[in-house]
Amino acid sequence: MEDENVSPDQTEDILKEDDEKATEKMEEAENQDQAEETESPEDTEASSEDSKKEPEKKGFFGKKKKDKKDEKIEELTDMVKRQMAEFDNFRKRTEKEKASMYEIGAREVIEKILPVVDNFERGLAAVPEEEKESPFVDGMNKIYRQLLSSFEGMGVKAIESVGQEFNPDYHNAVMHVEDEEAGENVVVEEFQKGYTYKDTVIRHSMVKVAN
Predict the structure, then answer these.
(1) DSSP secondary-structure letter at 190?
(2) What pTM value is reported for the model?
(3) Which end of the chain is more exposed for a tag (fewer CB within 10 A), N or C?
């Protein structure tokens, strides 16, 4: 086999081409190393921001834990609501007690005045017919009517008895009689008048009941 003959010019071109390829490979390797070592600014900022973020506080079952400030606000709000409710209950209870005390006091006063009214009625009933037109009797009648008018203004009313069916809530039966003209269990006579104060019995009527 015969050797190929290479001219000096061809040899120089081949060597030059080999040097250029070697130089390109070296540059590519350097660029790749620099790219691996260098990070972009955006990636650096993103990683720093992630590192700065604090983990979110969560309680059991993944629920977000409340801030201490919010818990204190809720505690104080609940305390104020409770105090307002307690004060409202106290106010209502006080008003009820005051009304009850007023009614108790009024009943005691009425009970003490009733005997005076009874004496007026007995005295006027005992006046003879010829003296009923006298100035003294007329004055006594006016005082008696004034007492009844004051009672009515206070809410005191006389209990109707004669001709009414006996009611143990209002009447106190002290006698029973047989009377064919009267109905069954009917009041035929009143011995002492009874009174109520705002639908509450102050004194029961003392009566006689037929049949």
Answers:
(1) E
(2) 0.55
(3) N
